Amino acid sequence: MKNLASDQEAKSLPLKLGHGINRCLVLLKGEAIRKRDTLLKENVENVQLLMSLEWHERVSCHSLKELYDAKLNKKKLPTTDDIVRLTDFQKP
Fold first, then answer.
1. What is the span of the domain harbouring residue 41?
2. In the chain, which ranges are E strands?
3. DSSP E strands: which ranges in 17-72?
4. What's the Rg (C-alpha) of the chain?
5. Which DSSP state fits 79?
6. Counting Cβ atoms within 10 Å, is residue 59 exposed (0-12), middle (13-18) or buried (19+)?
7. Nearest to 47 by CA among 26, 64, 17, 16
8. Which residues contact 66 (CB under 8 A, 6 or more apart)?
9. What pLDDT does 78 receive?
């Protein structure tokens, strides 16, 4: 079961990284505004623009597709208790 959780975490990692990167950019932009560093502010805005334009197509859509496919391909087998109950129910 540990491998399944690790696999699920690995598939969602790009989504988490995207949110983390955006949060760091917001903090860095705030620092640039406080320091009146127009070059840093401009660089941060350019990176934010690239993230908003390309992150979804290049990264997050693939991660979301993998998560969705994994959800659809999950095999749900009946438990032993369910099988025992079913056989007991079917006995005359």
1. 2-90
2. none
3. none
4. 23
5. P
6. middle
7. 26
8. 11
9. 80
* Residue that has been written with the tokens 């007991």 in this structure: 88
Residue 70 CA to residue 88 CA, distance in Å, equals 34
What pLDDT is attached to residue 42?
Answer: 97
Q: Which tokens belong to 11?
A: 């598939």
CA distance 92 to 83: 16
- Would you give per-residue pLDDT tens digits along the chain (92 residues)? 455 557 777 778 888 888 999 999 999 999 999 999 999 999 999 999 999 999 888 888 878 888 788 777 777 778 888 888 888 888 87
Split into its structural domains, the chain has a count of: 1
Q: Tell me the three state secondary structure of residue 77.
A: coil
CA distance 78 to 88: 15
The pLDDT of residue 34 is 97
